[in-house]
Design a protein that fits this description.
Blueprint lengths: L1 H18 L15 H18 L4 E9 L3 E9 L25 E8 L2 E9 L9 H5 L10
Antiparallel strand pairs: 1-2, 2-3, 3-4
Length: about 140
Amino acid sequence: MRKYILTLWILLSALLIGSGSPSAQSLREPAKGSPERAAVLEALRPAVEAEMRGPVEFVVTTIRVSPNWAFVQVDPQRPGGDPIDPEETGFAGETDMMDGLTVYALLTFQSGRWNLIDHLVGPTDVGYADWQQRYGVPPAVIGME
């Protein structure tokens, strides 16, 4: 009987843990130029442009998408590839406490579109480590599995 209960507990635990996280098959990187990739980045753009005080284009380092979540790591630059002077952004005077202008963002797909949930600019640590607990994002989406 004990062996049966232990086996049942292990199976149930595996099912519960597995049900909350997307499998590797459900995570994908939308192709460059795809409508999905553009939609994710366009949902992020207004917040970043406000902080950068002007138009930006993104150099994508990471874009990881599941059916309901997206995580991105991007480096903003001015259209045409010009670098952004951190002292001409909303972070003027604070840039010595930042690790560049790299942006980390979490988005969710609701009501037929991507919506920005949270983002960080230039963190000096893994500032998104608590997003799993705070927002319920599966750890694989943010690379914290």
